[in-house]
UniProtKB/TrEMBL annotation:
GO terms for cellular component: signal peptidase complex. Keywords: Endoplasmic reticulum, Hydrolase, Membrane, Protease, Signal-anchor, Transmembrane, Transmembrane helix. CDD domains: S26_SPase_I. It is an enzyme of class 3 (hydrolase). This is Signal peptidase complex catalytic subunit SEC11. It is a single-pass type II membrane protein. Catalytic component of the signal peptidase complex (SPC) which catalyzes the cleavage of N-terminal signal sequences from nascent proteins as they are translocated into the lumen of the endoplasmic reticulum. Specifically cleaves N-terminal signal peptides that contain a hydrophobic alpha-helix (h-region) shorter than 18-20 amino acids. InterPro entries: LexA/Signal_pep-like_sf, Pept_S26A_signal_pept_1_Ser-AS, Peptidase_S26, Peptidase_S26B. Component of the signal peptidase complex (SPC) composed of a catalytic subunit SEC11 and three accessory subunits SPC1, SPC2 and SPC3. The complex induces a local thinning of the ER membrane which is used to measure the length of the signal peptide (SP) h-region of protein substrates. This ensures the selectivity of the complex towards h-regions shorter than 18-20 amino acids. SPC associates with the translocon complex. It comes from the Eukaryota.
Length: 229
């Protein structure tokens, strides 16, 4: 018999259709009720959501080692990118965050600044980042005066006087004891060439709440370890 045969499975609410080759001009239909089909019940296996320590214990040693290496790869990649950016900009800290409001309205607290340090000729009006001798806190202020500089071996070193746009006085009181000006070659980290507003607030939070660093690193590590390929 040629045509279309339709079979039904009422118990499981499944409809199976198989099409046979048909050469006749009219198709013939066969009532589903004339067939008795036993549909086997499929066993659906469910499993409970694994806990953190359960997932960790279920990992094979090789899988665990692979995930740990993946996490180490992420950290090493970030480190290499940072070092590569330092070489390209000739700055030990090519990216810094504004920590205070001394440069408002030009820069707000939490702004992310990009620095460039190739070329030691700094003009009045440029915004620079410098480190105070004996301290490890970078300061972002504007150059208001410059002294010395020039070409040649015997030229005096370029010295700068800086001031915050939102401050009433210059930075003389911020410099190291006995220092009246900044040495452009040794004290300045770089000149500001661009910024992204408010992105650096994460860094400020990590500095004000050190325990957040541990939480963030732990979260990143667990995310990589429990990630399934």
């Amino acid at each position: 018999m040629s045509g279309i045969i339709t079979t039904c499975c009422d118990k499981q609410s499944y409809l199976y259709r198989s099409v046979l080759s048909a050469k006749a001009h009219s198709s013939q239909y066969i009532n589903c009720a004339s067939f008795h089909i036993d549909c086997p019940r499929r066993k659906i296996q469910t499993r409970n959501s694994p806990t953190m320590f359960g997932s960790l214990s279920s990992l094979q040693p090789r899988q665990l080692a692979t995930q740990v290496l993946n996490f180490a790869l992420v950290l090493s990649t970030a480190f290499m990118l940072w070092k590569g950016l330092s070489v390209a900009t000739d700055s030990a800290s090519p990216i810094v965050v504004v920590l205070s409001g001394s440069m408002e309205p030009a820069f707000q607290r939490g702004d992310l600044l990009f620095l460039w340090n190739r070329g030691l000729d700094t003009k009045v009006g440029e915004v620079v980042v410098y480190n105070v001798r004996g301290k490890d806190i970078p300061i972002v202020h504007r150059v208001v005066r410059r002294f010395g500089g020039g070409e040649g071996i015997n030229a005096p070193p370029l010295q700068l006087l800086t001031k915050g746009d939102n401050n009433a006085a210059d930075d003389t009181e911020l410099y190291a004891r006995g220092q009246d000006f900044l040495n452009r070659a040794t004290d300045v980290v770089g000149s500001v060439v661009g910024y992204i507003p408010f992105v650096g607030y994460v860094t400020i939070l990590l500095a004000e709440y050190p325990w957040l660093k541990t939480v963030m690193l732990a979260f990143m590590g667990l995310t990589v370890v429990f990630q399934r390929e």
